[in-house]
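#structure-requests
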Amino acid sequence: MNPQKKFHLVFSLVMGAMMIFVMTFVITFVNIGLTEHFFRLWMKAFGIAYVVGVPVIFYLAPVARKFTGRILGVKPA
């Protein structure tokens, strides 16, 4: 695997973990509050969202980068 592809894969894994960690925490908290089952339900939501979210980030990040470049009239790095 070339370094750029490897970077993109690792970026997707890390960015997915950080974003999904925060988002599932917020949504779980809004939906059920701080109950005795909060942590279990949050981790369940995190696991499901991570499996879905990382491939979405992996495939859509380059599209978003190009689209953003077009909006701003710059060439993405």
